[in-house]
Amino acid sequence: MKQLIKQVFLPKGRKLRQLKGGLAKGMWIELDLLTQFQRYWGIYERELITPFKRLIPYCKSLVDVGANDGYYTMAFLQSGAERVVACEPSTIRERLLTNAQANGYQPSERFIVEHRFIGQGEEWLAIAELIQSLPRPILLKVDIEGSEINLLQSVEAYPFLSELYWVIETHSQDLEKQCIKWLISHSYHTKIIYNAPWRVLLPEQRSIHHNRWLIAEPFRSQF
Predict the structure, then answer these.
(1) pLDDT below 70 — which residues of the chain?
(2) What is the pTM of this model?
(3) Is 22 helix (H, G, I), strand (E, B) or coil?
(4) Which residues are paired to 192 by β-bridges?
(5) In the chain, what are the domains?
(6) Which of 33, 136, 178, 208 shows the smallest number of beta carbons within 10 Å?
(7) End-to-end CA distance of the chain
């Protein structure tokens, strides 16, 4: 029934729209309201707004790993961060660049777009290498389905782990447990962000059952 109502009343097709709410409120992003209605109104991943609003102003560099079409990248760009890095290996990266341009941003010394896969692998780029010259502290938002622990292991050579803050989307209970174990063993305080109870009424359209987030901050952090 909800899908039928959407099809009848919502504008059809993808076009640039100015977001009415959420972390990237006011930014222009190409959206299809039939499938991305929650982004438009700021309901998309609403559970993360509080931790992001707390961490973004504190960090000098903001890194979006698994940037997709750039929703979080747009939020990062409108902040006061010294560096914003968007990592997206797929062709949807072109939409990210279109969205950035619509908001007046082009790749530059401040705004870096990385097309390689991030983690450990042939021709992949390790997180330690990606962030080695970025101003600290650094916030890393990670959404790379199935490769979460691989990415974390690729940062172990970085000498300033105590200046990294993480928002990691996990896509299975096993991977979530592995990530928590790694983070705790590297002196991070880790918290699971559960799906809000009201998601029963307004679920996000997910291709897999397990989707929630980890917030990880160094022990003795001011937070």
Answers:
(1) 1-12, 207-208, 221-223
(2) 0.91
(3) coil
(4) 214
(5) 45-218 (3.40.50.150)
(6) 208
(7) 43
